[in-house]
Amino acid sequence: DAKKLVRSPSGLRMVPEHRAARSPFGLDEPPWVPDKECPRCMQCDTKFDFITRKHHCRRCGKCFCDKCCSKKVPLPRMCFVDPVRQCAECALVSQKETEFYDKQLKVLMNGATFFVTLGTSEKSELMVCRLSNNQRYLVLDGDSHYEIEITQISTVQILTEGFTPGGGNTRAIGMILQYKVPGSEEVMQMKFTASEDFSCNKKLSASWLAAMHKATKLLYESRDQ
Q1: Residue ranges per domain, the chain?
Q2: Same fold, 3-107 and 111-224
Q3: Distance between CA atoms of residues 173 and 67, nearest Å
């Protein structure tokens, strides 16, 4: 998908040519709190003057002094080319998301093998499941072929085993995915179960499911924006 370089008050962004091609995990730039409505830092309440200048957090759009908004952190969910200024709270969130973009997104794109059961069928099919390179589709390949739009996914339930009263020693073994077919209100369901053939498959499947769980959280956040 073609992209273009655009400049906003927040910095340079590399965005898709068409809005429909944007990542489902992306966030829009927030409106900035107008300078005239912000005489004091919205974190420490320091009064702005000629010496104490105001800065806007690129993630939340609120107004802060330099001390409360000094960190420059990557913000791939808004397609910024370079790290951008963020308040301490937003910087912490963006830093946690870095792992998803640096590691887990690659895991999803590389894919993993699962037994996939469609709807209430008793038959399952061994399929390779992966996220498309443009991040907009979940692609399933086996004897059959499916492409599920990420934006049409309504719920994702991760299935685990090994639960203990203390909450430890659990591992992901599958997931139940519900989604809508474009142009229809019908909700479809798929169940993914990790293959037990090889121990390496278990580890790869568990990593893929963990990445999918994180991706789902980001997807919900983008919808709630």
Answers
A1: 3-107, 111-224
A2: no
A3: 45
The CATH homologous superfamily for domain 3-107 is: Zinc/RING finger domain, C3HC4 (zinc finger) (3.30.40.10)
Specify which residues 12 forms β-bridges with. 7
Answer whether 0.85 is exceeded by the pTM.
Answer: no
Average pLDDT over residues 36-62: 94
90 closest CA partner among 57, 64, 66:
57
Domain 111-224 has CATH 2.60.40.1120: no
160, two tokens? 């685990």
Q: How far apart are CA 219 and CA 137, in angstroms?
A: 13
Whole-angstrom distance, CA of residue 112 vs CA of residue 128: 6
pLDDT digits (tens, 9 = 90+) for 87-132: 999 999 999 998 899 999 999 999 999 999 998 888 999 999 999 9
- Give the tens place of pLDDT for each residue, 162-215: 765 555 667 788 999 999 988 888 899 999 998 766 555 778 898 999 999 999
CA dist list (Å): 191 to 124, 172, 175, 200: 9, 13, 6, 21
The first and second tokens of residue 37, run together, are 């409505």
